Amino acid sequence: MSSYNWCHNPKCHTYQTTDRIRGSGDNKVLRTRRIKITDYQNAYYYQGWENHFCRVACFFAYVKLHVDRIVAIAPVREPSETPIKIEKEKYESYRYKHDNNGDYQRVSFQSTRTKIIGVNND
Ligand SMILES: [Zn+2]
């Protein structure tokens, strides 16, 4: 098994950076970047694209080009829902408003916020 991938962005080889220059003499080219395959499975930052694209900009160029076919793999035609339990909570809030002298005054008021107190992710 190969331990390298080529960057999958079809335009990777058109970006003018010195690390992409290959060839000798007058036969220079800009070449697609090669990516060393790394076992990222246990890396907290692993997103899944790192072994296929040389940088996030190349990943998004690929997504932009193929997004219609990518979403066709697993289309979402209706929303999903997660059952939750909520709690309404009253709290003291404030805002600032101009008084008759043109000064700001802090005005307190009671407000209500919704807290999610339980999530069922089954
Ligand atoms: Zn690339």
Describe the structure.
It is a single chain. The chain is α+β, with helices and mostly antiparallel strands and 122 residues long. It has 2 domains: 4-73, no CATH class; 84-119, no CATH class. The chain is 15% helix and 34% strand. The chain is built from 1 helix and 6 strands. The chain has one helix at residues 56-73; strands at residues 4-6, 21-22, 29-30, 34-36, 84-98, 104-119. The strands form 3 sheets. The protein has a two-stranded antiparallel ribbon. Strands 2-3 form a two-stranded antiparallel sheet. It is elongated, with a radius of gyration of 27 Å.
Please outline what is shown here:
This protein is an alpha+beta fold. The chain has 1 helix and 6 strands.
Annotation keywords:
2 domains, alpha+beta, two-stranded antiparallel sheet, binds zinc ion, 6 strands, 1 helix, elongated, 122 residues
Ligand species: zinc ion
Number of distinct helices: 1
The overall pLDDT, averaged over residues, is 93
Radius of gyration, CA atoms, in whole angstroms? 27 Å
Give the tally of structural domains. Answer: 2
Order of helices and strands: EEEEHEE
The share of residues in extended strands comes to 25-35%
- State the low-pLDDT regions, or none: none
Number of strands: 6
Tell me the span between the first and last alpha carbons. Answer: 38 Å
